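Ticket opened by: R.M.
Priority: normal
Category: complex prediction / small molecule

The reporter submitted a protein together with NAP and asked that the result be attached to this ticket for the collaborator who will pick it up next week. Submitted input follows.
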Amino acid sequence: MTMQSINPFTSQIISEYREYSSTEVEEIIQKVDQAFYSWKKTSFEQRAGCMKNLQAKLLEKKEELAGIMISEMGKVKREAIGEIEKCAWVCSFYAENAGSFLKNEPIKTEASESYISYQPIGTVLAVMPWNFPFWQVFRFLAPALMAGNTGVLKHASNVSGCALAIEQLVREAGFPENVFRTLLIGSSQVKNVIENPLIKAVTLTGSTLAGKSVASTAGSVLKKSVLELGGSDPYLILEDADIETAARLCVTSRLLNAGQSCIGAKRFIVLQTVYEAFKAEFVRLMGEAKYGDPLDPQTAIGPLARTDLRDELHQQVLKSVEMGATVLLGGYIPEGKTPFYPSTVLENVVAGMPAYHEELFGPVAVLFCVNSEEEAIRIANDTVFGLGAGIFTSNVEKGKLLAEKGLEAGCVFVNDFVKSDPRLPFGGIKESGYGRELSAIGIREFVNVKTVVVK
Ligand code: NAP
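Result attached by the on-call engineer:
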């Protein structure tokens, strides 16, 4: 079996990779498991030294690494460079903070001494998506390795070049051999890998369908899993919002990565008194964003990563329109081979339509006009997803209250759009998954929280 990397902009095959056989996969996992027993004995300072080298390598090679991403999945250049810089940030963040996040924590009891000790658990499998092909891997890799774990990566089949580049970078940064390895395998081999006794846990970032499959295998062999899945993030525009700022930030979030982001703003729920004003500005800004060559600095929206994904998105739009949704902008397949999709805005979307219930993984926005904040919250929460959400209001106290008590989501941003940040926990609820990445909480997902008591 082979896996192909195809440049979505040019439709050219960049490379073909032979899938590793199950025997090769087992051999690599054995080596990574062996590496764990010496890696776990290293100090935080030693690990931080390697992690700082990795940070430096990322920055030194950012043009080259961004280039691999651009050619394999069509990300526009400034976003690709930004992604590599963010990976460098997460490396330095955990290099500097892992020791304090995982230091022993004394707890007062009747014993002479009692404390929590955080210990690594072994080799963790990371199953990762193509949409942020470096960032998704680094936000797993940096905390996992700093905690003293080792890792194997099964990346999405269309970004094998990124997967191999990451493995090579880790090597060049001076990490011991086999502390982190890439497995070039398709999704059908993931079950076997999870069931391998040398694999101690699994993290998956991807679709809800893939999450359910990985979680059930992990459950059947009683291994810990963390799942970062899809989202259909709602943004509430309240009556007292600064409409221009809200429209600008909502459009930015919706179009980031050509709309292929789990935390992209996807549903815009606007109070009736400000609906027309918001709609006019939002549609104007969406209309200004042009698709084109990802290397052209003027391009706002690159091609979608694959033609099948673009066609699926268009079907979701078409079906919603057949059922009564209105197209305010876009909503067609441009001519030519490149899987572009224009910025698209829908309204009159109601329950039962794909655009109401499903994740729209591309530059398609849905506008809702509501009569009250209660109705806004009801629609926002009327989804199987619970990843991110936003609220625009000049009443910050109200914004905080709705963020804390109203919206069913793992992250809520008031007067801004949701972004992942190494310092803050990141993750979802409901079918957006469970567990958290990043921050002190993320690094503690794959450790043994060990209680030690001395009488
Ligand atoms: P995907 O099709 O689920 O693939 C993600 C990864 O899972 C790939 O490595 C894929 O391998 C593998 N995979 C697919 N089906 C599997 C199965 N049944 N068993 C085991 N592994 C399986 O998702 P995608 O299209 O790459 O990414 C888009 C999705 O990821 C969106 O839903 C998006 O919202 C979500 N996402 C979530 C977050 C978050 O943090 N919550 C971040 C980014 C993306 P193959 O490529 O070989 O099929």
